[in-house]
Amino acid sequence: MLSIEKLGKRRGSRVILADVDLRAEPGKVTAFLGPNGAGKSSTLRILLGLDRPTSGTALVHGRAYRSLRDPLRTVGSMLDGPGAHPSRTARAHLAWIARSNGIPRRRVAEVLEQVGLAAHGRGRVGGFSLGMGRRLGLAAALLGEPEALVLDEPVNGLDAEGVRRLRGLVRAHAADGGTVLLSSHLMGEVAAVADDVVVISGGRVVAAGPLSDVTRGHASLEDAYFALTGYERAEGA
Ligand SMILES: Nc1ncnc2c1ncn2[C@@H]1O[C@H](COP(=O)(O)OP(=O)(O)OP(=O)(O)O)[C@@H](O)[C@H]1O
After folding, report:
1. Total structural domains in the chain?
2. Ligand 1 centroid from CA 42, angstroms
3. CB distance 17 to ligand 1 below 6 Å
4. Best mutation site among 41, 46, 50 for ligand 1, i.e. most ligand atoms within 8 A of its Cβ?
5. Neighbour order of strands in the sheet with 29-33
6. Whose CA is nearest to atom 13 of ligand 1?
7. How far is CA 177 from the centre of its chain?
8. Does a structural domain hold residue 97?
9. Measured from the CB, is residue 233 less than 6 Å from ligand 1?
């Protein structure tokens, strides 16, 4: 369970986040949607202890990320970039994370297989394509068999096979009772996997609830998204 309440973030006089509420529940895929600059990454960075809020709380299983005893076994995350040194091989990178977090070494081969990088384990990360780097980031998120997954724009850079694989992984994770929170600005990908949706625009949540509730009265999630974020009006103005 991931719970964010009344989260606020200011940078100088700029309001980045205002009273953001979000819950991602076990057994469900929750999509966090919004246009570029809406505040998705800022929210997820605070949830993962990489930044501090100005107000409010962001908790993983009722605790702040920084106070988790076994963070990688509790919540796996993928933010931008593979987060690995370019001269390291994929396997060495994952083995290093595993070693420093008390995760069994066997998990390295398992997650490389899961994300479709089994044939590239000995490849240096510096030679990876954008999509391969994203797959490696996903592998690192899965490494500790965490209950919760937090994935920031996981579809970016993935090819069709990668997108299909990702969908399968997140659906399977939720089906096993896990919690999945993923951000995206790509409606089609989200409509295909999400149970619940939270839409953010200008640092404020403009809609939240089951996908069917958020899309009610609209032809598609995309139509709902444009209506909720005011994008069409802004572009037409
Ligand atoms: N380190 C930072 N310093 C100053 N401003 C920042 C910083 N990080 C983000 N911002 C600002 O905070 C706002 C929210 O950005 P954020 O990256 O959270 O949005 P996002 O919804 O993740 O967008 P995208 O879809 O483009 O990734 C933006 O106006 C951005 O310019």
Report:
1. 1
2. 6
3. no
4. 41
5. 75-78, 148-152, 179-184, 29-33, 196-201, 204-210
6. 37
7. 17
8. no
9. no
Q: Residue 183 Cα, ligand 1 centroid: separation in angstroms?
A: 13
39 lines ligand 1 (CB under 6 A): yes
Query: Does residue 179 form part of some domain?
Result: yes
Give the gyration radius of the chain's Cα atoms: 18
Give the pLDDT confidence of 201-223 residue by residue, as tens digits: 999 999 999 999 999 998 888 88
Burial of 10 (0-12, 13-18, 19+ CB in 10 A): middle
Residue 9 bridge partners (DSSP):
17
Range of the domain at 11: 2-61+147-236
**Selection from 80, 12, 9 nearest residue 39 by Cα:** 9
pLDDT digits (tens, 9 = 90+) for 143-181: 999 999 999 999 988 999 999 999 999 999 999 999 999
Predicted complex ipTM: 0.91
